[in-house]
Structure to design on (260 residues):
């Protein structure tokens, strides 16, 4: 559900591993691309009031649903993400889907200072974080489903890196705070590992285990990309959260492959 920046390469990778994949898009012009990549394409749109498109055909005979639909809380077309997920949940139950992988975010941990792990109680402070946490529970609290929640850090990849938006900016705060990021390659590897190893009814932090300060990290990345670095305000504060991927590293012995 959601063949975007993460969902499309994920679908392609899983097809190469032998899975049969149905994939959704909200853009009709993208259907030929999905079909070209051997994805069974569906034009489906979720809103807080209804689901448009052949959702029953999309979910028919589906064993595992990967929910990769971020909240749309900016701009003039804001929607109630939780209600959208409730509608999707009702369709999942009608279709008798067994397993759910729900792509969430480390935003659910809020502004906690210091180290947090999967055992830390989330205290979201943003609207996005609050709605994601509530949406997690829609699926996780349903005993008829086997649901694994993956809370990803900031997503980066070959054509997506926050340093490009930060370049040349001045007076940025919290330069000593740590980064919590993950590369697209490892996002795909984590989801593939959940499927292969049946890691169900789990909560997983998808964050690369290296947390330099924002100032050091984005300055180094700007130099690497040969673009002007951002400028941070001077500060002695070192607060910020470090999201630990303990479930993956300590329990599952997962190996991250791509440095942030």
């Amino acid at each position: 559900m959601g063949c975007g920046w993460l969902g499309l390469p994920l679908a392609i990778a899983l097809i190469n591993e032998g899975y049969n994949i149905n994939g959704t898009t909200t853009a009709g012009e993208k259907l030929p691309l999905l079909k070209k990549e051997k994805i069974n394409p569906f034009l489906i749109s979720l809103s807080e009031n209804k689901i448009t498109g052949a959702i029953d055909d999309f979910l028919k005979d589906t064993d595992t649903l990967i929910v990769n639909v971020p909240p749309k809380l900016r701009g003039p077309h804001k929607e109630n993400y939780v209600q959208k997920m409730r509608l999707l949940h009702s369709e999942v139950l009608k279709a008798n889907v067994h397993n759910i992988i729900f792509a969430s975010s480390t935003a659910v941990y809020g502004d906690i200072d210091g180290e947090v792990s999967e055992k830390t109680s989330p205290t979201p402070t943003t609207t996005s974080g609050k709605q994601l946490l509530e949406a997690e529970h829609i699926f996780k609290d349903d005993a008829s489903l086997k649901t694994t929640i993956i809370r990803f850090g900031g997503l980066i990849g070959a054509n997506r890196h926050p340093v490009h938006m930060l370049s040349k900016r001045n007076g940025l705060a919290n330069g000593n705070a740590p980064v919590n990021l993950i590369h697209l390659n490892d996002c795909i590897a984590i989801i593939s590992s959940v499927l292969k190893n049946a890691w169900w009814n789990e909560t997983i932090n998808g964050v690369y285990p290296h947390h330099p300060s924002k100032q050091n990290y984005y300055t180094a990345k700007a130099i690497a990309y040969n673009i002007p670095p951002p400028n941070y305000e001077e500060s002695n504060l070192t607060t910020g959260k470090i999201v630990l991927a303990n479930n993956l590293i300590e329990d599952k012995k997962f190996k991250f492959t791509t440095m942030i």
Remarks:
- The chain has a mean pLDDT of 95.
- Residues 76 and 212 are 36 Å apart (CA to CA).
- The longest helix spans residues 81-95.
